[in-house]
């Protein structure tokens, strides 16, 4: 299906039970992400946050209720959903090919100039310019020298190049040292300014910049409000 901007993501009375599971991991979820809205999603480990991200991406299908992007169930997009919804996970996956190919993934026609542009935005331009092979450096060779934070920046460059309007960050800074983490959060919020953002996080640092904060507990939305209200 073809849909046009602006994009609104609507979750309506959605429940999800894993195949073979007895209790719902998520139940009665109602949530709307308006175009450009920034929402932080907090909740304890196991509360269903990553499951929700998979459902929004259409990787899982709701047991009941709906998840729609501009009236179209996300599941109906198949792989095409990547044009509209991008996810950055806790451990971004890099492929065993060149830096350029890793960033071009899902956007094969992008020029080198476009790649350099996103690398500049995520703060990696200088580092990659210094590599003798530049964009053609194989990631498995350079991989050892890419730190956790740099890997996340590469994943962010990939997402930016695709230019999906809705971005989900699933605890993208877990396991980084505090200084790298802070720098990365600043970059994320800066380059994703014009996107709709669902930021799954486990701590409060940075969430004052969000429009809404949601706490999820035992698969249900327990609290929802602006940073000032909560
Ligand atoms: P964390 O903060 O640790 O990342 P989370 O909030 O992202 O946790 P989920 O990964 O969504 O939590 O998991 C929610 C619940 O669903 C957990 O109880 C988990 O064990 C269960 N679960 C996750 N994946 C599966 C699966 N593939 N099959 C069955 N149960 C699953
Ligand atoms: Mg998770």
TrEMBL record:
Location in or out of the cell: Cell membrane
Residues covered by the ABC transporter domain: 9-230
Name of the protein: Thiol reductant ABC exporter subunit CydC
The species this protein was found in: Ligilactobacillus faecis
């Amino acid at each position: 299906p073809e849909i046009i901007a602006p994009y609104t993501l609507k979750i309506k009375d959605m429940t999800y039970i894993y195949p073979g599971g007895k209790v719902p991991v998520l139940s009665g979820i109602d949530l709307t992400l308006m175009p450009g809205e920034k929402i932080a999603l907090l909740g304890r480990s196991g509360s269903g946050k990553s499951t929700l991200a998979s459902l929004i991406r259409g990787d899982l299908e709701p047991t009941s209720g709906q998840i729609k992007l501009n009236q179209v169930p996300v599941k109906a997009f198949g792989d095409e959903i990547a044009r509209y919804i991008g996810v950055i996970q806790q451990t971004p996956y890099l492929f065993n090919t060149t830096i350029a190919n890793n960033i071009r993934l899902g956007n094969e026609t992008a020029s080198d100039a476009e790649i350099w542009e996103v690398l500049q935005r995520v703060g990696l331009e200088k580092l990659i310019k210094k590599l003798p092979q530049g964009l053609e450096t194989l990631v498995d060779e350079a991989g050892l020298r890419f730190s956790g934070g740099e890997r996340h920046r590469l994943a962010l460059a990939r997402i930016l190049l695709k230019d999906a309007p809705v971005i989900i960050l699933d605890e993208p800074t877990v396991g980084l040292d505090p200084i790298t983490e802070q720098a990365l959060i600043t970059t994320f919020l800066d380059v994703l300014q014009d996107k709709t953002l669902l930021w799954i996080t486990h701590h409060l640092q940075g969430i004052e910049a969000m429009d809404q904060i949601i706490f999820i507990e035992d698969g249900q939305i327990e609290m929802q409000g602006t940073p000032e209200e909560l």
